[in-house]
Amino acid sequence: MILLGMLKNYIDSNWPSKSSMMVAIAAATVCSDRYGVSLLTLSTDLDREGKKLVFFLMNATDLPDFNASSRAKMFDYLMQDHLLGRVRKGDVNDAHSRQIQRTLRMKSE
What we know:
Blueprint: H1 2-14, H2 18-31, H3 39-45, H4 48-58, H5 68-78, H6 84-89, H7 95-108
Helix pairs in contact: 1-2, 1-4, 2-4, 2-5
């Protein structure tokens, strides 16, 4: 999946920035309805490249290589310890990751 490559490149090169965490969560929303993110938060926290990736995510179903297998690969990548798994565990102890943890908890309740 081309989009997955773009996401990996953005997230890995910007981790642990606030925008890379928000892009990771936005990507998780494409894989599972257990995740969610505020459009206001995305609008205020993402840089131009991050917003472009979220736009592609919003149109992921139009991509020719978007299927259950590609979503599973994306979700597996996102759940690695250095991405969503790390945000969920609280290993990143700065203010923006705590805000993201609250967002994840609110969605799962």
